[in-house]
Amino acid sequence: LPYFMDRPVARLALELELDVPERNLRVALSGAAESFNSKVQFRQLAESCGAPIARGQMATTAEELGSAISSLISDTGRVMIKQNRNSGGAGNTAVTLHGETMITGAWDVVDGRNRDLVALGKELWPNIAIQRNTEVVVEAYQTNEKVWYSELFIPGDGSGPKVCNFGEMRMTPTFSGIDLPGETTSRFDLARMIGYSELLAE
Q: Are the CB atoms for 72 and 117 separated by under 8 Å?
């Protein structure tokens, strides 16, 4: 199977008459891969499961974006604005009150000092809410030491998800690769991360 079975790959598989299970093709053609990459849907799912995530809000208008920036930036002095459908940090805009010019995970960094943050949201909106990204997620930016990922297989036969792999993502300043296996964290933190991953997959 292709690594990322999205709609264009599914259509190519049909055109080339590849041996791909019909169910997989139907799921891919329905846009499932795009849904899995939705920042909005992930936040909704994570909040419903009680997973530990940064405080955040969804915005669908320039006014909502400005309001979200204003209400969340007090947590850490930084917020990250994420396009709903993008990956690898692409399209991420950070607003900071600390004067940095580079923030891990952001393609663009905006100085929010001495700015009307609601007005700043309106200014940023036309360059962020483009193409498929009419919804964005705004999160209080949390610094971190490591970024981890987990990979799970969901059989689809009613049995629970199975952990296939996990590793550390290199993010300097945006995604540049994965270290496998990931062995630089404590067993406690690793078990906690995998536990929440399984909960989300269920």
A: no
What's the CA gap between 126 and 65, in Å, rounded? 11
Number of alpha carbons in the 13 Å side-chain half-sphere of residue 89: 19
Q: How far apart are CA 93 and CA 54, in angstroms?
A: 16
Please tell me the distance from the alpha carbon of residue 167 to that of residue 40, in angstroms, as a whole number: 24
Return the closest-CA partner of residue 165 out of 153, 157, 147: 153
CB atoms closer than 10 angstroms to residue 19? 6
Q: What is the DSSP string of the chain?
A: --SS--HHHHHHHHHTT----HHHHHHHHTTHHHHHTBHHHHHHHHHHHT-----EEEESSHHHHHHHHHHHTTTTSEEEEEESB--TTTT-EEEESS--S--TT-SEEEE-TTS-HHHHHHHHHHHHS-TT-SSEEEEE----S-EEEEEEE--SSSPPPEEEEEEEEEESSSEEEEESS--SS-HHHHHHHHHHHHHHH-
- Reported as a single tens digit per residue, the pLDDT across 84-93 is 887 766 789 9
- The token pair at 87 is 């990956």
* Among candidate residues 56, 60, 61, the one with its CA nearest the CA of residue 71: 56
The string of pLDDT tens digits covering residues 45-88 is 899 888 889 999 999 999 999 999 999 999 999 999 999 887 76
pTM of this structure: 0.79
